[in-house]
Write a structure and sequence with these properties.
binds calcium ion; 8 helices; single chain; 21% strand; 227 residues
Length: 227
């Protein structure tokens, strides 16, 4: 899943980027409110981490309001140095989904990010399912039936995106956009390679069960029990 961090403190922004990338997310950073707004309404992003105090023509709260006013439904996690109750309420009223007070622990940030990314389509607790494949985004546990499957962080990230798009066809471009960040040089062939890795782990070892990853030639890929 792809995240944009809107934060003018370069050290904090870069630390968040590095940390979340280690967890398998694709992360881009922008440092002012105006580019923040442009990114937050861009459907390429699955989550926005937004600092409250920003240089530019608006603060984080106003940015949030404008995203919602334009119909943007991307989950927004707001960061702030101030932690009074009034600030929290104002942040949430402006359309933020969650709120984190600086300084925060990286574990807490990650936990909130995961919770926000799970919110939308299909989930029971922290697990997402397709057929007999279950994926727990809190513990990174992947199972087909009772069998544990070990994935690299990029493979996990690809699977998580396919799960969010379950039943729909996703193109290679969509996969590149949501699984890799703007700094990465990714060719369509790279997507084929990673889809291959994933297939080797979730479909090939289970020949007696229906395959879950389907290739629609000329269109893209689909995750589901049926092609
Ligand atoms: Ca700031």
């Amino acid at each position: 899943m792809r995240i944009v961090v809107v934060e003018d403190e370069v050290k904090i922004a870069q630390a968040i980027k590095r940390g979340l990338e280690l967890k398998g997310y694709a992360v881009d950073v922008v440092y002012d409110a105006d580019s923040g707004l442009a990114h937050a309404v861009d459907p390429d992003y699955d989550l926005v981490i937004l600092d409250r105090m920003l240089p530019g023509s608006m603060d984080g709260t106003e940015l949030c309001r404008r995203v919602r006013a334009e119909g943007g439904s991307v989950p927004i996690l707001m960061l702030t140095a101030r932690g009074t109750l009034g600030d929290k309420v104002e942040g949430l009223n402006s359309g933020a989904d969650d709120y984190l007070v600086k300084p925060f622990s990286f574990d807490e940030l990650t936990a909130r990010v995961k919770a926000l990314l799970r919110r939308p389509p299909h989930h029971v607790g922290t697990a997402m399912k397709v057929g007999d494949l279950s994926v727990d985004t809190a513990t990174y546990k992947v199972k087909r039936g009772e069998q544990d499957i070990k994935l690299s962080s990029k493979e996990f990230s690809l699977l998580e995106y396919l799960l969010h798009s379950q039943g729909r066809v996703v193109t290679k471009d969509m996969i590149i956009t949501h699984v890799w960040d703007g700094d990465a040089l990714v060719l369509p062939n790279t997507v084929e390679v990673y889809i291959g890795y994933l297939r080797n782990k979730i479909d090939r070892p289970f020949p007696e069960r229906p395959p879950l990853i389907h290739t629609l030639r000329g269109f893209g890929y689909k995750l589901g029990e049926q092609a």
